[in-house]
Write a structure and sequence with these properties.
Elements lengths: L2 E4 L2 E8 L12 E4 L13 H4 L5 E4 L18 H14 L5 E6 L1 H12 L4 E7 L8 H27 L7 H12 L3 H11 L15 E6 L7 H10 L3 E6 L6 H4 L1 H15 L3
Parallel strand pairs: 3-4, 3-5, 5-6, 6-7, 7-8
Antiparallel strand pairs: 1-2, 2-4
Helix pairs in contact: 2-3, 4-6
Length: about 270
């Protein structure tokens, strides 16, 4: 089981490398999932990418096979950025394409600011430069107190997907993954976003950036991502109809095709 040694723990990662040996080498792609999700949500992106790119996924701190910190552990955005680069180092990715969803998108933005020389392109799905509100933390705490991880997950699923957008077995898999998250990790990860505002530094993100966003996220209105687009020097935005906060999973085929076209058109390898 590949583990990267990070500050205060370890991070489990996986590499998919199906690129034929006679094909030219492209920079790898590193994916960062968000709260309630898992590395498996990117599986639907593989068909559009695996022929030409080495793909790296990992369980973010607080989930799955990575270290689950104690309830009183001090989380921070800087720590999550460091985690991302620890995984990249372990996977041998000196420079790479970076894609993140939800909080993973915010971490990805911060990573592009922290070490711009290592990020070839940046992709943010259903994420933003602005963090969560204290009201959302309180709402999630109440859901967890009243219904546990399953009660919280059941409520969160309605924020992620429109009815009928996923086959039953796919929705059941996602629900099971989400319910594995522990209360402390959920709230502490969300707490990282409180007060986060990367607006003043957006002009410093020089790499080409792709924004993928749902038309109906309960957490991040399209207007916020339009502001993000405006603040970035080199970015493009795609808004998906009939989609919510589970965009990269529910619309994996569409998202991955746009992502592949973006990478092919930029040719930064």
């Amino acid at each position: 089981m590949p583990l990267a040694t990070a500050s205060h723990g370890t991070l489990h990662y996986d590499i998919v490398d199906q690129v034929a040996p006679w094909r030219p080498a492209h920079l790898p792609i590193l994916f960062h999932h968000g709260i309630g999700a898992s590395a498996g949500i990117w599986a639907g992106w593989r068909p559009a990418l695996a022929d030409a790119y080495r793909l790296v996924t990992f369980d973010m701190r607080g989930y799955g096979r990575s270290t689950i910190p104690a309830e009183d552990f001090e989380w921070s955005l800087d720590l999550l950025v460091d985690d991302l680069f620890v995984v990249a180092d372990a996977a041998g990715a000196a420079r790479f394409h970076l894609a993140g969803e939800s909080i993973g998108g915010t971490v990805a933005l911060a990573a592009a600011l922290a070490r711009p020389e290592r990020i070839a392109t940046l992709t943010v799905s259903n994420g933003a430069h602005l963090g969560a509100s204290i009201q959302r933390v309180e709402a999630w705490r109440r859901q967890l107190d009243e219904g546990g991880s399953k009660g919280w997950s059941d409520a969160f699923l309605r924020d992620r997907f429109h009815d009928g957008v996923l086959p039953p077995e796919q929705l059941a898999w996602f629900a099971a993954e989400q319910e594995r998250w522990q209360r402390a990790s959920i709230l502490n990860a969300l707490g990282v976003l409180i007060g986060t505002d990367l607006t003043p530094r957006l002009p410093e993100v020089k790499c080409p950036t792709l924004l993928l966003h749902p038309d109906c996220s309960p957490f991040i209105p399209v207007s916020v991502v339009a502001e993000l687009l405006e603040g970035l020097p080199d970015a493009e935005l795609n808004v998906f109809g009939r989609s919510r906060h589970g965009l990269p999973f529910s619309h994996a085929v569409q998202c991955s095709r746009i992502f592949r076209s973006f990478l092919d058109s930029r040719r930064v390898d």
